[in-house]
Design brief:
The chain has about 120 residues and is mainly beta. It has no helices and eleven strands. The protein has strands spanning about 5-10, 10, 20-25, 35-40, 45-50, 55-60, 65-70, 75-80, 90-100, 105, 110-115. The strands form two sheets. Strands 2, 4, 5, 6, 9, 10 and 11 form a seven-stranded mixed beta sheet that branches. A hairpin with a 7-residue loop joins β9 and β10. The N and C termini lie far apart (about 40 Å).
Length: about 120
Amino acid sequence: QVQLVESGGGLVQPGGSLSVSCAASGTMSSFYIMGWYRQAPGKERELVATITGPASTTYADFVKGRFTASRDYAKNTVFLQMNSLKPEDTAVYYCHARFSRLGNAYWGQGTQVTVSS
């Protein structure tokens, strides 16, 4: 059974940095897509960053220049480094993965990121 487990997150002041990571278990195959979504209270889940195939990374406009996604393909792990955090970045951050472009989506349980003074 494939599982995605996030770690990291927490409370940080505006302008600060935080990182989250996500490790997959239950599979020896590499994911085609791994990335991050987030969901703030009262809002729909939205894409933050995804890494597709060898190294094609897509970022949401609202995180470009501030967030950096990366992967360890050997360990089926994905990371998200978040800099210059803003209060509006406060959300539950979810790890996401697929074995193929249209394959089933796997989700982590989510990790809370709170940006507040």
